[in-house]
Structure formats: C-alpha cells, structure tokens
Specification:
With 443 residues, the protein is α+β, with helices and mostly antiparallel strands. It has 3 domains: 177 residues, FAD/NAD(P)-binding domain; 158 residues, D-Amino Acid Oxidase, Chain A, domain 2; 68 residues, no CATH class. It is built from 14 helices and 20 strands. Strands 5, 6, 13, 14, 15, 16, 17 and 18 form an 8-stranded mixed beta sheet that branches. A 6-stranded mixed beta sheet has the order 8-2-1-12-20-19, covered by helices on one side. The protein has a 3-stranded antiparallel beta sheet with strand order 3-7-4. Strand 10 and strand 11 form a beta hairpin. Helix 11 packs across helix 14 and helix 12 packs antiparallel against helix 13. Bound molecules: flavin-adenine dinucleotide. The site of flavin-adenine dinucleotide has 37 residues, from helix 1, strand 13 and helix 8.
Length: 443
C-alpha cells in the first residue's frame, strides 16, 4: 500500500504536529519526484490574540529543537522569539540557586503559539508573531492547501478514510493524518472510526499570562526561567517564564483548583518574582489545557496515522519537540515505506515506543521527586550541590545539566537519569546531606 502520484492526504489539525507533518511529507515527496496533494484542516486563525488564536502552551522551545528545526529548513524568524532564556532559577522552601547555560548555544527560545494573550491587541503594532501561524504558512508555501474549517465527521469510503466538514463538503483520502491534539472533540471522531484507536491518558494543567510590562519582567525575572519546587500538595511543576511584557505561569499537578492556585500566588517564593504591590488581576488570560501523561492505543491502521499530542509525546516537557520527531517519522514512513499498518508498525511505531519508554523513566523520576521534595534536608543539599557546581569552573556540572535538561526538555529522561545518578554526583549529594546534618547538630 503506497502513495502514488496525485495521492490525496488529509491532515486534521494545523498545530505544530499537523503543519510539520505536511511540510515534511511535501518536502520528501518533492525529493523523490512524487506528486501528492495535501489538505490541512485547521479552523483557528493564529494571528488572533487570546483563546481564538491560541493552542495553549508554556511556549518554551529547547535549544536542541531550535537546532533540529534549522537542520530541517525551519529557521525561526526573530519576531517569533519573544525572549531567550540562558538560566534557570530554582526556588525551594529553603532558598534558591541559579543554573546557567553551559554555553551560548544553549539559549532557550520563548514563543507565543498564537498572537499573544487576550488584551495584547491594544498594544498594536505587536512586535511579535505567532509560532503556529509561521508553521502553517510554511506548510502552505510547501504546497499544502489550508482548509480553514473544523472537521465534523470521519468515516470510511470503500476502505479509504473520508472527511466531512461544512454542510455537504466531503472528501475521500488515500491517507488520513490525525493531528488534533488533546483539547478538542476531534479525538472521539478518530475513536469512532473503529480502527482500535484510544486517546492518550491526559490530565488538566493551568497556564496564565501575567502582565508586568517589559521593564518589570526584565527586573524581576531577568533572562531566567523560574522553577519552584514547593511543598504544595498535588503540585508537580510550577514555573514562571519571561516573555516580553508578560510572565507565563505554568502549573502541572493533580486536581489543580482554586485552593492550589491561591496557595501558589500567596507563596512568598512566587510573590517575590512579582512587581511590588502587584495583585493578580480579576481577569487574566488563562486556560486549563490537557497535558499528555500516557501513551495512546493503536495510533495507526491501514491509511490512518495519529501524530503529535494525540499520539505519543514527552512527559511534562518538549511537546513541540515530540511533535517534530513524530512528524518526521510519519513523513518518512508514508513517502518511503507506504501507508499500510505494517509500514507504520515497522517504521513509525519505534519512534513512539522510544518516547513511551523514556516517559516511563521520567515517571519514576517524578515520583521519586514527589517523595523527597518535602524533606528539608534534601532540598538544602540539592541547593548546596548546585551552588558548588556553578561556582566551580572545573566541575563537569552533571547535576546542573540534569536539571537543565529536565526543565528545558533538551535531553531524554534516560540521559537525565544517567547524569543525575552519576557516582560523582551521588557522592557529592550525600556529602552535602552529611554537611547539612552536621550543621544542624551543631546548632
Ligand atoms: C500547560 C502546558 C504547557 C506546555 N508547555 C510546553 C512548552 O513550553 N514547550 C513545548 O514544547 N510544549 C509544551 N506543551 C505541549 C505542547 O503544547 C503540545 O505538545 C503541542 O501543542 C502538541 O502539538 P499538536 O499539534 O499535536 O496539538 P495542538 O497544538 O493541540 O494542535 C491541534 C490542532 O488541531 C486543531 N483541531 C482540533 N480538532 C480539529 C478538528 N475537528 N478539525 C480541524 N482541526 C482541529 C486545533 O484547532 C489545533 O490547532 C505544553 C502543554 C501544556 C498543557
């Protein structure tokens, strides 16, 4: 089962996964002298501010992804990058420490997925532009046809997938790519196609765009992402990221509710990053998107394949990087090896399995973190180790690297684990615990 000249490909969803899949398929097809027609269904206009133009995300892109995109011919223009981060500041209940980038190339890019938060339109002309719009335009330039409609129904037409959108508008495709993310009703349409697909496990998260003004953001946050390891029940991850005049607050955790958010906003560690006297506005641009936490079931069949968040992704980090990896694997499989279930099983599934396995390791690390996070002495020893590594130019900075990679998403959990569990790191960590114990006994 192969693509032939004038085969039709329908891609449902024009977020990063859908747009990049379109780009990579069209690029590979051109190189192999194959003429394919690609329709990209995406109802959103990413040039709008607020929820209508936004795909709800922290908007941090690791340096390794910026480089991978460039290698694939996707050079992010300056107006998409609102800020670059060259440090992480770790705040705990017992103090803080800063982890600097090991080299210039390790800068992390901060982007808005749409045209910016609700209310930003009053600042016209806006000095930044949308990441998702850029990718969608790139797909159009490569030859994809953008159909600005929401797909309403999916079914089969004599063994080929059929897509219905507006009243009476129906088209049959040789290949259907699902790139609908996790946040819409699109997932159930794919379940109802009865090829065995079950969506990934997901949980609710929270994002708010806090307006401080550029000067205050620079003064309070600098060029650093602020990560808070606080002992708040259910909290898994909390970060404030500078983005031009905004600070993006991202909260991951179990059962995020008003009480948890109240505790976060009132915590002294978080409040010290706010301008003096700053109060959370009654109306902030915020959302509670779903985040991927477990693999899907049967993400492909003959003539249909799922990519991006609605397939496999990376646990709590680098979702756009994961979308890139699967878009590449999907394009390579479909153009070079065909569109049968067997082709996807052989050439696409390994990329998904690699991510799923790595997430398993990540899950183990997160559950260890949750157990030891409340222990004061562990937090103090961690800060002590980081400070010593950062102040020693000869140190290999393995612990700092492990934390940098965890927050930025630059490396796999396997690499992070190898760095964190390095015998040298362990020895320094346990001696830091010993030092803390001795200091306590003295006092
Ligand atoms: C709180 C939070 C913070 C995050 N922070 C980061 C981060 O800092 N860095 C990072 O790399 N990743 C981050 N992610 C993950 C990232 O947002 C996702 O991994 C990424 O958006 C996945 O891209 P996608 O294209 O698969 O899905 P999406 O971006 O969700 O795109 C899906 C698209 O499909 C369209 N669609 C849906 N249904 C239909 C339909 N029926 N017809 C037509 N179109 C349809 C939607 O309009 C949407 O545009 C974060 C996620 C969360 C929840």
């Amino acid at each position: 089962m192969q693509l032939e000249n004038h085969s039709r490909i329908g891609i449902v969803g024009g977020g990063p996964a859908g747009s990049m899949t379109a780009c990579f398929i069209l690029d590979l097809a051109k190189r192999t002298d194959l003429i394919v027609e690609v329709d990209l269904f995406e109802p959103r206009d990413f040039t709008l501010t607020g929820p209508p133009g936004c795909n709800m995300c922290g908007g941090v892109i690791s340096e390794s992804l910026v480089q991978k995109l460039a290698v694939s011919g996707i050079h992010l223009p300056a107006e998409i990058i609102l800020d670059t981060i060259d440090a992480y500041t770790l705040h705990t209940d017992h103090g803080n420490a800063q982890i600097g980038a090991a080299c210039e190339e390790m800068r992390i890019a901060c982007i808005f997925r749409g045209q910016g938060p609700k209310g930003a339109e009053t600042q016209k002309p806006l000095p930044w532009s949308s990441f998702d719009h850029y990718l969608l335009e790139l797909a159009r330039q490569q030859g994809a046809q953008w159909i600005k409609k929401r797909v309403k129904k999916l079914d089969w037409d004599q063994g080929r997938p059929r897509v219905s959108w507006s009243e009476g508008e129906v088209r049959t495709y040789d290949l259907l790519v699902g790139a609908v993310g996790l946040n819409g009703p699109g997932l159930s349409m794919f379940e109802q196609m009865n090829f065995g697909y079950r969506p990934p496990r997901h949980t609710k998260s929270y994002i708010a765009e806090l307006y401080f003004g550029s000067k205050e953001v620079e003064k309070r946050l600098g060029k650093s992402m602020h990560v808070f390891l606080l002992n708040i029940p259910g909290l898994k991850f909390l970060a404030l990221t500078p983005k031009g005049p905004y600070a993006t607050l991202v909260v991951l955790g179990d059962d995020i509710d008003e009480t948890m958010l109240e505790r976060i906003y009132q915590s002294p560690q978080v409040a010290q990053c706010f301008p003096p006297g700053w109060k959370v506005p009654v109306v902030t641009c915020h959302c509670q998107p779903r985040i991927h936490i477990g693999p899907p079931r049967h993400p492909f069949a003959d003539r249909v394949v799922m990519v991006g968040d609605c397939s496999s992704s990376r646990l709590f980090k680098d979702g756009i990087g994961a979308a890139y990896t699967l878009a590449k694997a999907c394009a390579y499989t479909t153009v070079v090896h065909g569109i049968s279930k067997e082709a996807f099983q052989h050439y696409y599934a390994p990329a998904c399995r690699k991510m799923d396995f790595d997430n398993f390791l990540g899950g183990v690390m997160f559950s260890m973190d949750r157990r030891i996070r409340p222990v004061a002495i562990v937090q103090e020893a961690l800060l002590d180790c980081i400070r010593r590594e950062q102040n020693d130019p000869t140190s290999p900075r393995k612990l700092s690297m492990a934390l940098w990679d965890t927050f930025s998403g630059s490396a796999s959990y396997r690499t992070i684990f190898a760095n964190a569990a390095n015998p040298g790191v362990m020895a320094r960590f346990f001696s830091a615990i010993l030092r803390q114990l001795l200091a306590r006994m003295k006092n």
